Amino acid sequence: MVKRKILLVSILLLTMSSFILLCSLRELLVIKRNHDSANNRFLNIIEALENDDNEKIKDMFSLNALKAADDIDDGIDYIMNLYKGKLISKKVTYEGSSTDYQGEKTSKLKCIYTVKTEESEYSIFFIDKLVDTKNPDNVGLYMLQIDKVEDKDKEIDWENRLISAGIYRPSDYKGIN
Predict the structure, then answer these.
(1) Count of CB atoms situated within 10 Å of the CB of 167
(2) What is the C-alpha to C-alpha distance for residues 7 and 166, in angstroms, rounded to an integer?
């Protein structure tokens, strides 16, 4: 009788430990997937900036973000003129979120990269919608903001950042001549 109780408790503990381990592994896989997705998007943005590839930037945006954006081509011109140099180093902070409600899944990342080139330091913020099973036209880059780190105290309200589709430009921006 005592051996049977010990065996049952051992099986129960082993089952619970396995369940906790599986949940932890699942969480690690999600974290790795988010990190890889953020890094891939970031590297594509940097490659397009370094190669002055306006179309590549535009192609990263979701169809709905392009529809909602205020003059995406002017925004792309703005960041192409702002960002200078080749990538030397980067630091990243990101936040991932996802939902699964009645079979409809969404997933997105908010990423802030601090980037150093041979010419300047930049903050690159973007929102990337990875999954939207209800509306696939939402999948892709939603917002992109690039600022020189030296200007961040002048323009960026990091706590109350305005989130809108397309490419952020400062309030005093007058357009490319």
Answers:
(1) 26
(2) 61
Residue among 139, 133, 41, 46 nearest 94 (CA): 41
Measured between alpha carbons, how far is 33 from 122 in angstroms, rounded to an integer?
25
Residue 78 sits at the vertex; the CA angle it makes with 169 and 60, to the nearest 5 degrees, is: 90
Cα distance between residue 56 and residue 125, in whole Å:
17
Q: List, in sequence order, every residue forming a beta bridge with 96; answer none if it has no partner.
A: 109
The pLDDT > 90 percentage for the chain reads: 51
Q: What is the pTM of this model?
A: 0.78
CATH match of 2-167 with 3.60.21.10 = no
Q: Where are the domains of the chain?
A: 2-167
AA letter at 67: K
